[in-house]
Amino acid sequence: MQKQILVTGGTGYIGSHTVVELQKAGFEVVIVDNLSNSKIEVLDAIEKISGVKPIFEKIDLDDKKATDHFFDQYTKIDAIIHFAAFKAVGESVQKPLEYYRNNLNSLMNLLDNMRRHAISNLVFSSSCTVYGQPDKLPVTEQTPRKPAESPYGNTKAISEDIMNDFCKVNASVNCLALRYFNPIGAHPSALIGELPVGVPGNLVPFITQTAAGLRKELSIFGDDYNTPDGTAVRDYINVVDLAGAHVVAINRLLNKKNKRNFEFFNIGTGNGVSVLELVKTFIEVTGVNLPYKIAPRRAGDIEKIWADTSLANTELGWKAEKSVAETLLSAWNWEKSVRGIK
Length: 342
Ligand code: UFG
What we know:
Helix content is 40%, strand content 17%.
């Protein structure tokens, strides 16, 4: 029988790409989203790609009553992927309570309903932000976590702790956290992608919006880091590759291949790429003019991080496949389709 997966935040950036990959793998998807940072039209785009419109319920998971009511109605859920969360690092500094309330309550409301309805499996969106600036690179899952730099980052660390503690006393519940590095790019169809509200805080949306003429120029934050070209280094992971990691994680839990009932994995490419390298690659693959300047460092940024992905490779049998060049091209194709640029 077709297994049913609840995807919270399924109309969002990573959520929508994961829904498509789940459908491709034969799962039935139910999306719950409050549409606070995404559009309902994403459902049509998903249908255009996969041929199937996912079931959708507009619910705020931080609303316990509404969440309980949802789970009372949907009784066939085999597993949950929990994306729904606030995710802007800078905003979280300004609105800590909103971030803690939303991100932590929604997780606890889900876990509570897993217990109430005997739903065994949860895949959770965590982040490499839990490592802070690691002392040694690349980071493995054994690399110690560091105190979070922002309330957003802290919600990811606390969420992992909540799942860990919950799993200790609920042996039938399995939680698997994926610690994403920097997700970028869009679906090759250019029908779904990242759609930030207002001025993008993240690098690639800012690049594509600048290339599209919406922004005057890109500021590269800092060129005096201890890196080969002085600009900060990250591990940029293609969003479709990342979506695929969720399908693998779901299969691991459904097939009871997990070794412990709380596990976590790094999901990146294993390669560090500097801001300047990324900018140059973008210009090269798209042939588009991209005005940029060097600006002061951004507060709270770390210097460099990239993943050791051995555990994901061996344990999950997952590996990132797409190059940064093709990923940047997909991001540009998406921006062009959003802006109606030929
Ligand atoms: N950058 C610029 N100019 C910009 C935007 C970003 O130079 O206009 C630089 C940043 O300073 C950083 C790099 O590009 O060096 C990447 O920045 P992003 O904002 O795209 O990504 P971050 O690495 O800062 O943040 C990401 C996720 C967060 C997560 C964090 C963990 O977006 O959710 O990684 O390190 F918390």
